[in-house]
Write a structure and sequence with these properties.
Elements lengths: L8 E7 L2 H11 L3 E6 L9 E5 L5 E7 L4 H13 L10
Parallel strand pairs: 1-4
Antiparallel strand pairs: 2-3, 3-4
Length: 90
């Protein structure tokens, strides 16, 4: 069966900071908030669904606390990508 342009697509991803994710997807890229629930909802996770109204696709972001492993990894990434203007070749 070949997918159609109107075939529904739902992409679900975990997020450690739903407020920052909302600023990016809604404020930065212009999607709309389609649904929002806090962590008291069924399943115990906060949920943010963004997309275009009436579209067949959406992005579902679930909130969760970052683990110690994730914090260590993200701290390493931040330091790996930190540079100063003086080190550039301009």
């Amino acid at each position: 069966m070949k997918p159609l342009a109107a075939s529904p697509v739902r992409i679900a991803r975990p997020s450690h900071d739903l407020r920052a994710a909302e600023r990016f997807w809604v404020g930065g890229l212009g999607l709309d908030v389609l649904f929002r629930a806090d962590d008291s909802a069924e399943g115990g996770h906060a949920l943010l669904m963004v997309g275009w109204p009436g579209a067949a696709s959406l992005l579902a972001l679930t909130g969760r606390e970052p683990t110690a492993r994730w914090r260590a990894y993200s701290a390493g990434c931040a330091s790996a990508y930190t540079f100063s203007r003086s080190s550039s070749s301009m």
